[in-house]
Write a structure and sequence with these properties.
alpha+beta, 18 helices, Ribosomal Protein S5, domain 2, 3 domains, 5-stranded mixed sheet, 8-stranded mixed sheet, Heat Shock Protein 90, binds adenosine-5'-diphosphate, single chain
Length: 588
Amino acid sequence: MSDIIKILPTEVLNKIAAGEVVQRPASVVKELMENSIDAKSTKIKLIVRDSGKTLIQVVDNGEGMSKNDMKMSFMKHATSKITKIEDVFSITSMGFRGEALASISSISNIEKISKKKNADKTNIISLEGDKVTLEKTVFSEQGTSIKVRNLFYNVPARRNFLKSDFVELRHIIDSFNRIALSYPDIEFNLIHNDEELFYLKKSNLRKRISSIFGRKIDENLIPLNEKTSLVKITGFTLKPQFSKKSKNNQFLFVNNRYIKSQFLNHSINNAYEGLLREGFYPGYFIFLEIDPNKIDVNVHPNKTEIKFEDEQNLYSIINSSIKHSLGVYQITPVLDFDKESSMDIPYDSHKNRLKEPSIEVDSSFNPFLEEKNNENWEELQSKIENDIFDKKNIDINQEIDFPKIFQVFNKYIITTTGSSVIILNQSLAHQRILYEQFLKLSVDDGVKSQKLVFPIEIELTKKQEIILSEIKDVVDSMGFKFSVKNKIVNINAVPPIISDKPIEEIFEDLLNKNDSYNIKESFSLSDLIAKKLSKLLSVKTGKTLKLKEQQAIINQLFSCKEPKLSPLNKQIFVTLDKKDLDKNFFNG
Ligand code: ADP
Ligand code: MG
C-alpha cells in the first residue's frame, strides 16, 4: 500500500503560524471529525464519555490509512494534504497543518484503528504520549476509528481549567453541529454516555437544520441564493420574528468551513436593520464560496478566522443579498406564524448583480399629494410598485399568494393571512411607520436632507421663536435645515420623507404648541418631535386609500420594530383567528 504522508519542509513550517490546537475536548472533536471529512467519509460517528474528559472517539468509513501513515500521522507537521507553501493558499481540505494528531497524542492516550480501501488488514496502534504501547492487526470494516482517552492527563493545569461537564458538552455539541451543518450529505451520530443525542441522516441543508434545531425553525427559513464573480452565497437567513437574544443561531461558513468574522457578521446584522427588536440578533446559516486563492485560512491554528482579499465588496454583496431575500419575504404576510413554510419562493438572482436592493423602501406614500399633484403621485405609485415587485425580482403573476386587502369605512384596512383576519387602523398604522422613520433619521449619521428649490420663509411670533430655539437641534438632526434672522426662518432643506408635503404647514404646526415641549411625557425631545410629526403627516381617518397605498401601509407596518402600538401606545390592529370565527358557526 502506498504511503502518502510527508514531513513538511522547514520553510513551509515557518510560514505556517504556530499555535495551540487543543484548548478543550470540543477542539479534539473538531479536529477528528474534520479528518474524517477529509478522508471522504459518508458516515461519521462521534462517541463521547464524560463530556470528552474520559473518551472522545470518532469512527468513520473513509479512505483509511496504511500502517506507516498511521505512525507518521502522530508526528508533528505530518500531513498528506499539502506539500508546498503555495498549497496553503489554495486549500480545499479541512486540515493541512499536520498538527492535530501530533498535538492530541502528546496530551492524551490515543488509539487508532484503520483500514484502507482494498487492504486486507486492519491495523491498530496505541500511543501513550509518544510511546507505542500496542500494535496489532485485526479484520474489520474500511475506515478509521480514533479514540482519545484521558485528555490532558499529563497537563493537570489544563484539565483543572476545564469547565463543568455541562459546559464542555455544550462546546462539543457546537463543534459537532457546525460540521454537521456544512456536510448535510454525510450521516452523523453523536453518542454521549451511551445516550444517542443526535442521529442525522444524509439529507439536504434545509432538513439538516430542522433535524438539529427542531421542526419549528423550518417555517422561518428564508433561502439565500446569490452568485457574483467574487462569491457564491447560499443557505438561509431566519425571519426577523425568529431572532433571539443570543447569537446562538448565527452560522457563517466559508468554503464549508465554519468561521467567525465580526466584519461579515456586521454586514449581516446590518441587513436586518429596522426589523429587529432592541437587543435581539438575527439567525442565519450562510455559506460563502470563494476562490481559495482569495482567502487566507491560516490566521489561527483552529482556522475559524479567515482573511479575505476583497473584504469591502464581500461586505456589500452579503448585505444586499440578505436585504434582497428579506425584501422578497417582506411582501408576503408576516403575521401568520402557523402557516406552512411559504418561503421556498424561487427567484432568479441576477447574474453578477452588485446593485444594492433596498428594502427600507421609503416608499412612504403621500396622502397629501394626490390632491396637490397628480403627476407626482403617479410617479410615486410606480416607484412603490417597482420597489415592491421589480427590484425584488418577483414575477407578480407567479407563486405568491397575495393577501386580499381592502378598506372599510375609510378608516380600517382589512387583510388576511392563512389563518386569521387582520383589521388595522390606517391612521395609527401610518403614524407608527412615520414615527420610526423620523426616529431613525434623528440617529442616523448620514442624514440626507433634500434641498428645496424654493426655500420657504416663515415669520415667527415671539412664542414660536422660543419654541424653535428649544427644538432646533433635534429638527436639524432629522434633516430640517434652516436659518433664522430677524424673526424670519428660512427653510432650505427638509427630510426627504416630507419633501413633497406642505412643509410650511408642518413647520408651523411644529412650532404651534400651547406650551413649550415637555419632555416628561416622552423619552426625549426627538421622540416627542417624531411623535408630533408622525401625527401631523399620517393619513387620516376618512381618507380613501388606493390598493397600493393600503399595501404599502401593511408592508411597512410589519417591518416596524413595534407594529402593534401607535407612537402614543394605541392598539393598531386586531386579529380574528379563523378558529374563533369558526366557533360562531355551530357545526360550521
Ligand atoms: P492534517 O489534518 O492537518 O493533515 P492531522 O494531524 O489532523 O493533520 O492528520 C495527519 C494526517 O493523518 C492527515 O493528513 C491524514 O493523512 C491522516 N488522517 C488523520 N485522520 C484520518 C482519518 N480519519 N482517515 C484517514 N486519514 C486520516
Ligand atoms: Mg486534521
